[in-house]
Amino acid sequence: MESAVMAPGSTRLKVRGKSNVGRNSITRLLTRNHNINNKNNRNGAARPNSLRNNSNQRHLNFNKGSRCSNQGVDNAAYAINININNGNDTSDSKIIFSGNFTREVYNAICPRLGHTLHIPEDSVQALFNDMKLYPSKDQVSEMLKCARQCGRRNGSSKYITFGEFCVFVKEMKNQNSKQHRKIQATKTNNKCVNNCEVFLGGSCNPTTWRADTAIPELQKYGITFYNPQVSMWVPELVAQEHDAKQAASVLLYVVDSQTRSTVGMIEVAYLVASGRCVIVVAHSYRPGQSIMGETITAREYRDLVEGQTTLLTLVRSKGIEVHKNLPSALQCTAKILRNVSNDMTPEEQLTSKLRKLREVFDSYGGQNGEIEKFGFLKAFHQLTQRELTTNEMYEYLNFSNNQSITFERFCMLMAEITSDNCDMSTTNGWVSQPFQRQCSTNNNTCNIDNSLINGTMEEPVNITSFKKNSYDVFLGGTQSSQWRENIAIPILNQQNLSYPNSTNGYEILDNKIVTDYDVLQWKQMMDNSKVILFVITNDSRSLTTMILAAHYIAIGKNMVLCVQQLPEENCHVGNETLSEQAIKDYNRGRVYVVDMAKRKQIPVFEDIREAVQCVVK
């Protein structure tokens, strides 16, 4: 442990302790700023500066009128304690820098105002200009009004806080970035992983709907996109596609009957259950049709129809419309993205984010001025539709103490995190109120051209009231093998655990096509079970099981997965031999389901007995 002490008016700096780490940079920082008095301090007395090094955070006391010089401070997180004198009210405030963005904003403030967390209203316009940002007078006026309302300050407080200013700076930069993206959108932008507005998911080769229709239409509106279609797919692309989906504001999926669409259906089930804004186009399969030059069997046709029906029932149960054609889906996509901006004035665009932050902050206990750190994690997830990783938690939040988070720091953290990694959130940094209204899972509809009114499928499914029996375990998965009777049920009976009989689980006979009612009945039983076990064996296509598994992975259901890959040669499902392409399609679906489960830390096994043992534990 080391410390540095400077007496008032002294030019000498004493550093105590054995460690020399950072001593030179600290000396340069303090000796350049120690003797500048606080111009706004009414008693005119200079306060002492002090510093102590605790782990990798530096705590500094500065006078408000001093000028900053952070060149000597490295990129580690550090904190500044600032003494602020407002009339007769003297208070200490702390600002903690955890990344480059807040540090950049603070460095822009210091040359003009010195070390302060309170920015006078009459300095806001000039500070924006210093940062090469040029809001109009009306926009600045609306920012000041919004800051007073969100900060719960009365009219006599003629300042905005540093955190509020960070939010406005980020939004100004974001608007400039969007204008730049519109200019660049006419160029090919298939791989804009971190800044795409639309993810073009669903059926890939041999379909050409992206290049022929979707991409030209999106470019016409200046909408950026990510195109995952490649000539040769490899498992390593899963992570890149995940980042693009996280960054996208709208996820447009085409479930085309020209392909098996295994991955597309699995992803839609997951994303819809996650509350993302998903636009779905679905084309029905036909008996005896060809896929990739191969005539599908009657059994595979039923499996594909069962999977697609399961997916669309889950989608419509959320109130999301399913489009029959791509033009209506593209028009809906463009309308949603345009309405994010065009339904608001330029002034409202800049302030909507701060109002949304205040709303979410209050919803997690912030009415009293602070929220707990775990409340912040929940708020962050609500705003960005993602969770902080363990490394990010330690980088941005100090869990070694129980210090709560003020609205000031909440704003700083949201601005910092969504600036450091644009792939961790939606394109706009966090979901604004107007965007949520357009893309909520219960209202993912839009008014489209009357000429396309027949382009959407039937009305949303109403969930019927089924008999509500509760179970300990739901045994979901392959029906053809005997894993339930030979492995799972004996173990569950030994532990006195309840489960639905296999005849009441999802099981489609060769002469029966699945209906919405069947799917909702399965869903009711799974919802009423404490744990779900999904078993995907190496002798079944298991498309429906993978779709249901993805749905329950997304909503956080307590579950265990057993996933077996189909053999690459001599693969048989029943009395049918699968083609090489079919094996690749269904195995690719397994790869995506396993990836989803691992991201949510759900146990995944290859051995059925091990999976069942995990359930009973």
From TrEMBL:
Gene3D superfamilies: 3.40.50.450. Residues 34-49 have a biased composition (Low complexity). It holds the Pfam family Nuc_deoxyri_tr2. Residues 34-67 are annotated as: Disordered. GO terms for cellular component: plasma membrane. Residues 50-67 have a biased composition (Polar residues). This is Uncharacterized protein. It comes from Zophobas morio.
